[in-house]
Design a protein that fits this description.
Blueprint lengths: L3 H8 L6 E5 L11 E6 L6 H10 L4 E4 L5 E3 L4 E7 L7 E4 L2 E5 L4 H10 L2 E2 L11 H6 L3 E2 L2 E2 L4 E7 L5 E4 L1 H4 L8 H4 L2 E8 L1 E2 L2 H18 L6 E4 L9 H7 L6 E2 L2 E3 L6 E4 L5 H19 L8 E3 L3
Parallel strand pairs: 2-5, 3-5, 4-19
Antiparallel strand pairs: 1-2, 6-7, 7-13, 8-14, 9-10, 11-12, 11-13, 15-18, 16-17, 17-18
Helix pairs in contact: 1-2
Length: 301
């Protein structure tokens, strides 16, 4: 890894390259050890950075807003590329919204509302960014990215830009082809429907109120911890198993919504992982159902 920072600064003078950056500052869980290298790039810098990382055999981990991640206490080797504030522009054009991958979904949904465009109301309270949401086909309240995405621009591991259709993205429940192919999302386009601005805003406000009422937003978390098992609801299974409020170290099954694991009191990633394993074992033993994590675990566990 010798010379990576120097090589990159030769190509991109002034680039902010941080070393041993605490990842707890970049996840909604507020958990995670240091990234060996950390960069929050602009769109035109991404291909150069990936090329330099490849030349130096530096492993690359791509993150968005960190809202669906559990980063190991041991941190992440290599480079963490956060697609965030350097790539967050949003444009309204006719019946479409075009957004860079680092734009927060709340900002994109608000831009759609301001333009009198309906279809993204469900996304207004999702804490993620466009890139992460497209990558995992994020959804809420019966809406999903696959219902509104019309085009996605990605960067291949070789540094080539591709424009993918919804069919090429292979959307399914919390899944797309992006991780399998090592793509980096640069931008997404959403095809929406003209609507009444006031009605759109009221619908968004209703979803926000439901979140505040039902979800433990007062504590750090990564959102829903487990995927919905077919024919069941993860939170209901966990509650029925008597695990409401169950704790390991500083991590807890939320008493407000059992589908959430929260950072109640300076939890470590090891605390959260052990709690998740305990929950999975209990649900399998009691109901014969396997819970699959929705939270993505990255780093040196």
């Amino acid at each position: 890894m010798a010379g990576f920072k120097e090589r990159l600064l030769e190509k991109l003078p002034g680039l902010d390259i941080r070393q041993e950056e605490p990842m707890k500052n970049h996840t909604t869980f507020r958990i995670g050890g240091p990234a060996e290298y950390y960069i929050c790039p602009k769109k035109d810098e991404t291909a150069v950075i990936l090329s330099a990382a490849g030349e130096c055999n530096i492993p690359v981990t791509i993150i968005g807003n960190g809202s669906n991640l559990l980063v190991a206490d041991g941190g992440i080797r290599g480079l963490v590329l956060e697609i965030g504030s350097g790539m967050c522009e949003v444009f309204a054009e006719g019946n479409t919204i075009r957004a860079q991958a680092g734009a927060l979904l709340s900002k994109v949904a608000q831009a759609a509302a301001n333009a009198g465009l309906s279809g993204l109301e469900f996304a207004s309270g999702i804490p993620g960014s466009v890139g992460g949401a497209v990558t995992m086909n994020a959804g809420a309240y019966d809406g999903e990215m696959k219902h509104v995405v019309s085009l996605v621009t990605v960067l291949t591991p070789e540094g080539k830009e591709l424009v993918l259709s919804p069919e090429e993205l292979e959307f399914s429940y919390r899944h797309s082809c992006i991780p399998r192919n090592g793509y980096l999302v640069l931008e997404a386009q959403f095809l929406l429907t003209p609507g009444d601005k006031e009605e759109i805003s009221e619908k968004m406000a209703g979803f926000r109120d439901r979140r505040i009422e039902k979800q433990p937003l007062e504590y750090p978390s990564a959102g829903s911890t487990f995927k919905r098992p077919q024919g069941y609801f993860a939170g209901k299974l966990i509650m029925d198993a008597g695990l409401r409020g169950y704790m390991v170290g500083g991590a807890q099954v939320s008493e407000k919504h059992c589908g959430f694991v929260i950072n109640k009191n300076n939890a470590t990633a090891a605390d959260v992982r052990q709690l998740m394993t305990d929950v999975q074992n209990k649900i399998r033993e009691q109901f014969g159902v396997s819970l699959e994590p929705e939270v993505k675990m990255i780093g040196d566990f």
